[in-house]
C-alpha cells in the first residue's frame, strides 16, 4: 500500500486511478444501477401481470357460471395462455364442470394441467385430492393412490387416507384398506369424515 507524502501526490494518484479504471467503474455503475432498476421493473411487471390475470380470471369465471360452450372455451383458452395460480384455480373450476357432466377424463386432464401451476402447498394438496377422487371414479386405483401420496399437509391426511382406503379396497386389498381407514381416524378430520371412516372401517373389518 502506497504512503502519500502530500496532497499533490494524492491528487495525482486519484487521477491515475481513474485513468486506469475509469471505464470499468462507469460500466460497473451502469450495470449496478441498471440492475436495481431492472429488478424493480421486473417486480413491477410481475405484479401488473398477476393483477391482469386476476381480473381476467374474475371475468372468465363469471361467464363460466352460465355453463355455455363459449364460456368453457374461454376458460380453456385462459388456462392455456396463463401460467400462474389463477390458471390453476380455473383448472379446478373446469374440472368440477366436467365431473358434473360425467366427463371424468376431461376432469382428470384439467386437474393434471392445473397441478404444476399451483403455487402453494395447500393448493397442490387440494388438486391432488380431487385428482385422486376423479381417478378412483375412473377405476384407476393405482393412479389415485399415487396422487394421494403427494398430499403432504397433516390437515389433509384424514381425507387422503379415506380415498387411499377406497382405492386399496377397489384393488381387493382389504388389509391395506383397513390400515388406511385406521390411519385416517388417527389423523385430523371433521366429525362427519370421522363418521364415514368409522363406518368404512367397520364394514371392511366385518367382510
UniProtKB/TrEMBL annotation:
Where does the Ancillary SecYEG translocon subunit/Cell division coordinator CpoB TPR domain lie?
15-205
Q: Look up and give the membrane topology term.
A: Single-pass type II membrane protein
**Cellular component aspect of the GO annotation:** plasma membrane
The UniProt entry, under InterPro entries, shows: SecYEG/CpoB_TPR, TPR-like_helical_dom_sf, YfgM
Which keywords does the record carry? Cell membrane, Chaperone, Membrane, Transmembrane, Transmembrane helix
Q: Extract the signal peptide range.
A: none
Q: Which GO terms describe its molecular function?
A: protein-containing complex binding
Per the record, the domain of life is Bacteria
Q: Where in the cell is it found?
A: Cell membrane
- Transmembrane ranges? 22-42
Similarity section: Belongs to the YfgM family.
Q: What is this protein called?
A: Ancillary SecYEG translocon subunit
Instruction: Say which species the protein is native to.
Output: Providencia heimbachae ATCC 35613
Amino acid at each position: 500500500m502506497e504512503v502519500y507524502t502530500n496532497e499533490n501526490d494524492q491528487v495525482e494518484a486519484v487521477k491515475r486511478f481513474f485513468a486506469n479504471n475509469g471505464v470499468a467503474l462507469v460500466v460497473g455503475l451502469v450495470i449496478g444501477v441498471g440492475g436495481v432498476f431492472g429488478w424493480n421493473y421486473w417486480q413491477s411487471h410481475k405484479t401488473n401481470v398477476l393483477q391482469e390475470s386476476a381480473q381476467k380470471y374474475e371475468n372468465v369465471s363469471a361467464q363460466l357460471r352460465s355453463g355455455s360452450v363459449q364460456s368453457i372455451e374461454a376458460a380453456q383458452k385462459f388456462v392455456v395462455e396463463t401460467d400462474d395460480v389463477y390458471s390453476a384455480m380455473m383448472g379446478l373450476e373446469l374440472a368440477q364442470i366436467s365431473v358434473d357432466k360425467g366427463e371424468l377424463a376431461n376432469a382428470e386432464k384439467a386437474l393434471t394441467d392445473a397441478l404444476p401451476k399451483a403455487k402453494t402447498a395447500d393448493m397442490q394438496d387440494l388438486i391432488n385430492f380431487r385428482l385422486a377422487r376423479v381417478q378412483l371414479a375412473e377405476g384407476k386405483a393405482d393412479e389415485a393412490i399415487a396422487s394421494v401420496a403427494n398430499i403432504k399437509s397433516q390437515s389433509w391426511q384424514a381425507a387422503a387416507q379415506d380415498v387411499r382406503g377406497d382405492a386399496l379396497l377397489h384393488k381387493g386389498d382389504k388389509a391395506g384398506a383397513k390400515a388406511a381407514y385406521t390411519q385416517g381416524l388417527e389423523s385430523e378430520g371433521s366429525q362427519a369424515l370421522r363418521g364415514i371412516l368409522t363406518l368404512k372401517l367397520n364394514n371392511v373389518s366385518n367382510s
